[in-house]
Design a protein that fits this description.
Length: about 150
């Protein structure tokens, strides 16, 4: 959880920094271009501002900063929501305490898989998650010892 919070904050900070610089340079570069005279410092300032903004835009797009920020933030939010449901309405997780704990951990594992997939830029569909959940958790053992999957 701390990892998600830390990374969400890093991506948020970089995203805001990038948006601020790109927005300012969009307005500032034309204004600086109009103010350029024979002074070499003003030309260098214009070049540095434009290059910095271009690098920020490239890095932001290449590393999908906004998407990663949203993924970590959504994972953090989903985990807190799941935790609150377990504290406020534990009966929705099962009748016995053991069943509640098992169901809670299964759902936490699902949230972790979604965030991990988002972190590695491999966003799964809900059907992929449901299929994995079914194959991991809904298999039952027959009396002969073989595993039978439920439809």
């Amino acid at each position: 959880m701390k990892f998600w919070k830390t990374n969400a904050e890093r991506y948020r900070t970089f995203h805001i920094y990038s948006l601020t610089w790109i927005s300012l340079s969009t307005v500032g570069v034309p204004l600086l271009a109009q103010a350029i005279d024979s002074d070499p410092w003003s030309k260098w300032l214009l070049t540095v501002v434009a290059a910095h903004s271009a690098i920020l835009l490239t890095v932001s797009r290449a590393f999908r900063v906004e998407a990663h920020y949203k993924a970590f933030r959504n994972g953090e939010s989903e985990f807190y929501d799941l935790h609150r449901r377990m504290l406020d309405r534990p009966n929705i997780f099962g009748a016995s305490e053991a069943a509640r704990i098992d169901r809670y951990f299964e759902q936490v594992e699902t949230v972790r898989k979604i965030v991990r997939a988002a972190e590695t830029d491999n966003f799964p569909s809900m059907e992929d998650i449901a299929q994995g959940f079914r194959s991991d958790h809904l298999g039952s053992t027959t009396p002969q010892g073989s595993t039978q999957q439920h439809p």
